[in-house]
Specification:
The structure holds two protein chains of two kinds. Chain A contains twelve helices and no strands. Chain A has helices at 2-29, 43-52, 59-71, 85-120, 125-138, 142-156, 171-197, 200-208, 212-230, 232-249, 255-265, 268-296. The longest helix of chain A has 36 residues, at 85-120. In chain A, 35% of the residues are buried. Chain B has helices at 3-6, 29-35, 44-54, 56-78, 107-116, 134-170, 172-186, 190-204, 211-216, 218-246, 250-257, 262-270, 275-299, 310-319, 326-353, and strands at residues 88-89, 92-93. A two-stranded antiparallel ribbon of chain B has the order 1-2. In chain B, strand 1 and strand 2 form a beta hairpin. The radius of gyration of chain B is 31 Å and the shape is elongated. Classes of the chains: A mainly alpha, B mainly alpha. Chain A binds chain B through residues 11-12, 14-15, 18-19, 22-23, 26-27, 29-31, 135-136, 138-141, 143-144, 147-148, 150-151, 155-156, 191, 194-195, 237, 241, 244-245, 248-249, 260, 263-264, 266, 268, 271, 275, 278-279, 282-283, 286, and chain B through 180, 183-184, 187-189, 191-193, 195-197, 199-200, 203-204, 287, 291, 294-295, 298-301, 311, 314-315, 317-318, 321-322, 325, 328-329, 332, 335-336, 339-340, 343-344, 359.
């Protein structure tokens, strides 16, 4: 087990390093330095600025400097607003995290419930209805979902204000974010529930006269949950990437909309900082998921 | 041969179990025919197709796809508008034709129709804010999405299959190193990397001189490059896993002992046996590529400007959503239809060709 964890952590570190490497060098490949402003500066000024920020050093040295900065929580300065990127992330990430966490919880709870209902009513109408909607939602990109929700509930029905600063305007973004992963969790739960329901130990439990609710919750669901646990890592990634567009559509000032804005504004240091920050979260979540998966299911052979 | 029956049987010993040929008669032709195998021999492919045809969902998905493809091919020939063409009446720019509802005519068009007593081809989906026919733009958007989906999944198919089969077939150290590379690429956050590389390639490389691709724009090229760089790992893992099981089979050993080369064994013995899995996951790759394309277009990293794509159309429609909701509905429904059809067909194909994989 310890060997597996060490191996998995090493892989995560290498991946993270690779992300930083790709980000840094691809951003450096873009022509134009950070001081190419509207007003032309004299060469002496540019040289002085370059020396001040260490940009006159060789690329390798710059990369090491940048990495050291990141490890100290310093992502550099945004080109457009001249603010520390770590401050921007610190301000906007809590908003994204709040919505994201809500979406994860909603997706997990409803996905599990719907999946169980579908599995327990196999080939009856609840199953068909659930599977119909789940299939529809998986074919819907999150931005289409978000736009539709906005169109129907804000504009046509006017149940929710299009824009407000109170917290209840999180309802629609959370729904838009959670529906696609929820559909996936529903399918996953249904499959693994059906699989678990067909096992011998479930039949034994039933034959012994264990209460049906106990059979479902103790014998079946516990085993059916394992594949769902493995999905939590990809779920985080899907919610984070989904939040980029969903936040933009609902004009929430979270990290996602900052990222999209930085792409439109060509604010390279901000793109770089956000990419590395988001990638770190995704990789960490995948790492945790993988390790938890091995812990909760001892049947899985350790490599 | 009948003569044999005339040969007098050797004298039978009382307790011998020897049979007396005289007690037998020849089978007639009809009786012989009965012994023939009644069912026609069926290949693996034909078997799968039969199962697929019996699945109503697969048939519906297939019909929808064929319909979409026919519309994509023939609509630009029938509809007399271009995707970047601003509607003109008698050579004059029709400014009143902007943002029209489906099947609505502008005042200039109405006057023109009354004057010459002809009908102008209707704007099936209305027009956009620059007075361009929206139907043809959606059709071209579908073309772009389809092209991206199919091209990207083909690239994934080729790279993933080659990489996976080499890794799986060689085994040992080669396999280990190749799979560690796959592990690392697999854990890269793909969409973030696509966005990043699209931004970079847009700034650094210029593809506008290349014939077809130039029209789609640098963003599309960078998307293909990124797909080729990142998305093949899933396929490579799949193919490797298949090959690891198949290569233990006796017929591979037989081929090897007869001196067949490694390449020949992969091509002739191993790949045909994992073909179904490869085809199915390629079909399932198409909607995910279309998703990525529409996502990128939505973020503003999609196709170059006059060329429409479904994601870009949906994005532009967002600003005028309150007044012209149909402009959002049409491209969105198109994306959903295409992805739904591919998803359902892919699932049905998996069930039909690989019953083992079924849930």
């Amino acid at each position: 087990m310890a060997k597996y964890i060490v191996k998995r952590v090493l892989l995560a570190v290498v991946t993270l390093f690779l992300v930083c490497l790709i980000t840094f060098f691809s951003m450096n490949a873009i022509p134009g330095g950070p001081f190419n402003g509207e007003k032309a500066k004299s060469q002496a000024v540019i040289d002085a600025l370059n020396a001040r920020y260490g940009l006159d050093k060789p690329l390798g040295q710059q990369f090491i400097n940048y990495m050291t900065g990141i490890l100290h929580g310093d992502f550099g300065v945004s080109l457009k607003t001249n603010r520390e990127i770590s401050t921007i992330i610190g301000e906007s990430f809590p908003i994204s995290a709040k919505i994201g966490l809500m979406a994860i919880v909603v997706a997990l709870i409803f996905g599990l419930i719907l999946g169980c209902v579908a599995a327990l009513n196999r080939n009856k109408w609840p199953d068909h209805v659930i599977i119909f909607f789940v299939t529809l939602f998986t074919a819907m990109p999150s931005f289409v979902m978000a736009s539709f929700l906005l169109l129907v509930f804000c504009i046509q029905l006017q149940w929710v204000p299009v824009w407000s600063t109170t917290s209840h305007n999180y309802i629609l973004p959370v729904i838009a974010l959670s529906l696609p992963p929820m559909s996936y969790i529903t399918r996953l739960t249904k499959t693994s529930m059906l699989d678990a329901l067909g096992q011998d130990y479930v039949r034994t439990a039933r034959a012994k006269g264990v209460k049906p609710t106990k059979v479902i919750f103790v014998h079946t669901l516990r085993n059916a949950l394992i594949p769902v646990v493995t999905y939590v890592g990809p779920l985080t990634a899907s919610i984070l990437t989904g939040s980029l567009v969903v936040e933009k559509i609902f004009t929430i000032g979270g990290l996602g909309s900052k990222f999209v804005d930085s792409i439109t504004n060509r604010d390279y240091p901000l793109i770089m900082g956000t990419t590395i920050f988001l990638a770190t979260i995704m990789i960490l979540m995948n790492l945790i998921t993988d390790i938890v998966y091995k812990i909760i299911d001892p049947r899985i052979k350790l490599e | 041969m009948a003569k044999n029956f005339d040969i007098p049987a050797p004298k039978k010993k009382p307790l011998s179990l020897q049979l007396d040929p005289k007690k037998f008669e020849k089978a007639t032709d009809e009786e012989k025919r009965q012994a023939d195998v009644m069912a026609e021999s069926s290949t693996f492919f034909r078997d799968g197709m039969r199962r697929l045809r019996k699945n109503p969902i697969a048939v519906i998905a297939f019909v929808i796809l064929v319909f979409i493809i026919l519309v994509m091919i023939f609509a630009p020939m029938i509809v007399p508008y271009g995707y970047s063409e601003i509607i003109t009446v008698e050579g004059v720019r029709d400014k009143s034709a902007a943002n029209m509802a489906p099947f609505q005519y502008s005042t200039m068009e109405k006057e023109y129709m009354q004057k010459y007593n002809v009908t102008v081809f209707p704007h099936i989906f209305g027009t956009d804010e620059l007075a361009r026919d929206y139907f043809i733009r959606v059709v071209y958007g579908m073309r772009v999405s389809f092209l991206v989906g199919i091209f990207a999944s083909l690239m994934v198919l080729i790279i993933g299959t080659i990489y996976g089969s080499i890794s799986g077939y060689c085994g040992g150290k080669v396999d280990m190193i190749m799979m560690r590379i796959v592990d690392i690429i697999y854990s890269l956050p793909d969409l973030l990397m696509i966005i990043l590389l699209s931004v970079v390639l847009r700034e650094t490389v210029d593809f506008s001189s290349v014939p077809i691709i130039g029209k789609l724009g640098t963003n599309m090229v960078s998307m293909f490059i990124v797909f080729g760089l990142l998305y093949w790992v899933g396929m490579a893992r799949l193919v490797r896993g298949q090959i690891l099981t198949i290569k233990e089979n006796e017929y591979v050993l037989a081929a090897k002992s007869m001196g067949a080369s490694g390449g020949r064994i992969i091509r002739r013995h191993i790949l045909p046996n994992c073909l179904s899995v490869i085809i199915i996951s390629t079909a399932q790759e198409i909607p995910s590529a279309i998703f990525t394309e529409s996502y990128l277009s939505f973020v503003g990293l999609g196709v170059a400007v006059p060329m429409p794509s479904l994601g870009a159309l949906a994005n532009t429609a967002r600003s005028g959503m309150q007044s012209y909701p149909w402009k959002l509905v049409f491209p969105a429904v198109a994306i959903i239809l295409i992805c739904l059809a591919f998803n359902l067909l892919g699932d049905a194909m998996r069930d039909a060709f690989d019953p083992k994989l079924k849930n």
